[in-house]
Design goal:
The chain is mainly alpha-helical and 159 residues long. Helix content is 56%, strand content 5%.
Length: 159
């Protein structure tokens, strides 16, 4: 009897005939990023709930400020670019935005996300979550931005 499946993100697909001998986990970069993101949110939330860390008020307020700054970046992006979307696509009447937050950085929503993700563990009073960031590779955020840039250029026919 054939068995078929795929990883969480659907990048890796497989089909097996006969009885499965073992089970494994996907190691594609998309699935690893998804699991890391969940860990980035869940660990600080559990730390906050069970009070594993004792963080003074001033770092917590600084974390709150970083989260608020991330939300402000999102707001400014949506206000400046009416084509903002989770799916990267080019519409026929779409133009390259170079004003507002786009004048500072090409992908301001990614920048706002990084700022917010740095602030969340501290805002929740979690040294464990903040320590988790030290293991994250900032190049993964850069790679995600690069893929978005390449996709936009390809859709627009720009090299």
């Amino acid at each position: 009897m054939p068995h078929s499946g795929n990883c969480f993100c659907g990048t890796v697909k497989l089909e097996v005939t006969g009885s499965p001998e073992a089970m494994g986990y996907c190691h594609c970069s998309s699935c690893i990023a998804a699991v890391a993101f969940v860990g980035l949110i869940v660990l600080p939330a559990l730390d906050h709930r069970f009070i594993w860390s004792h963080v003074p008020l001033s770092p917590v307020l600084a974390g709150d400020a970083l989260v608020a700054l991330g939300w402000l970046a999102f707001y400014l992006v949506f206000r400046e670019n009416s084509f903002t979307s989770a799916t990267i696509e080019v519409a026929p009447d779409q133009k390259v935005i170079s004003t507002g937050p786009y004048a500072l950085v090409r992908h301001p929503m990614y920048a706002g996300t990084v700022v917010m993700l740095l602030g969340i563990p501290i805002a929740l009073g979690s040294w464990w979550g903040a320590a988790r960031h030290r293991r994250d590779d900032p190049r993964s955020h850069m790679e995600s931005a690069r893929r978005g840039e390449v996709s936009c250029k390809e859709s627009a026919g720009v090299s």
